[in-house]
Amino acid sequence: MRVATDRWHGLYKEGWTDSIVEASYAHPAKFRPALIRYIYEHMLAEGWLKPGDRVLDSFAGVALGGLHAMHNGLHWFGVELEARFVALGNANINLWNERYGPLFPGWGTAVLLQGDSRKLLQVLRGEVEGCVSSPPYAEGCQHTGGADKHPEHIEGGKRGVAIGYDAAVVSSPPWENVEGSNAARKHKEPEAIAQKRAEGYASGRLRGHAASKEAILRSLYRENDYTYGNSPGQLGTEEGETFWSAARTIVEQVYAALVPGGHAAWVTKAFVRDKKRVDFPGQWRQLCEAVGFVTLHEHHAMLVEDKGTQYDLWGETHEHKVKRASFFRLLAERKGAPPIDWETVWCMEKPEAIL
Question: How far apart are CA 35 and CA 266, in angstroms?
Fold first, then answer.
């Protein structure tokens, strides 16, 4: 089924700054605040959500999808496997309730639960009107996502027979297991690099290329835990067919949890493996449609912004573009890797029951 495609611009300039607890930056895949806010605005404008509805994030991380859900009067439910992220997510929810809740009439609620999304219906015990989430994949990671060209053929677990309680799903699968969190790195890089250089020069270990920003960053990321975690069943560390079979089970659980006519928004992104672009968004769409979802919209949230034409000192014109990407992604593209210029947001529907 062909769907209309459009572009969303200007959604990656804004950061979380002090609106989340500092330790939350350790999570490797965080919604940008403007992106998640725009997704909710889009779903509300389409009539897919209304204040008072219940929204699910099956890959909840540190609960960042909850802030704008509450601001729009929604009741957000997140499920996260890793205990440390559940603790950080609930700290974020408490922070938002204290700081913003009294300021906005009709402020919603958010609950982050620890559990395995492959058993989502056991965790939720009810129906939801929507889902906003992002599935796990790994830009630069050699073992997660994209290994099977036909994920729609993978068998999942047994589909739950209970009805869930989501009106909508807004989620994002896990990714960047190797590169880690862009925001965490950006937040800590300058001080950490300076300290690492000082220590290296003092000990005589750093000389020439070893003192470059790239070399020091690689060392820092090996030493710090910017990963999804290592709990048994962690989807961000699964491989090949195991990844896709686990993903299918989760999508089946989300589908069962949605009310008929409920909607899902999935945030996905292509990645590069062996110098070739892997169409993870397309594979995720195939998987969701195989489970029963109908794709309605394809939105490209642009990572590249055109700043117009500029003149140099010699009167020559140059197109000026700004790209929101990690240090290693920009470095790889300068060396010839295929560009990744947008994240794909899929809007999908669980069809009404056919009598």
Answer: 12
Give per-residue pLDDT as tens, 113-140: 999 888 888 887 677 888 998 886 544 3
pLDDT tens per residue, range 22-72: 888 877 767 889 999 999 999 999 999 999 999 999 999 999 999 999 999
Pairing of strands 166-171, 258-268: parallel
Query: What sign does the CA torsion over 244, 246, 250, 256 have?
Result: positive
Q: By three-state DSSP, how is residue 38 classified?
A: helix
Q: At what angle do helices 182-203 and 213-223 cross, to 10 degrees?
A: 110
Residue found by looking up tokens 């034409």 in the block: 309
Give the position of tokens 């110098």: 275
Tell which phi-psi region holds residue 246, choosing left (phi > 0), alpha (psi between -120 and 50) or beta: alpha
Cα 53 to Cα 206: distance, rounded to the nearest angstrom: 56
The single-letter DSSP state of residue 24 is: G
Cβ-based neighbours of 85, under 8 Å, separated by 6 or more: 27, 60, 61, 62, 229
Outline where 166-264 has alpha helix (H). 182-203, 213-223, 240-257
Contact 164, 126 (CB under 8 A): yes
Residues 167-178 have pLDDT tens digits of 566 666 554 333
DSSP 126: S
- Give the domains, in start order, of the chain with CATH numbers: 5-179+229-306+337-349 (3.40.50.150), 182-225 (no CATH)
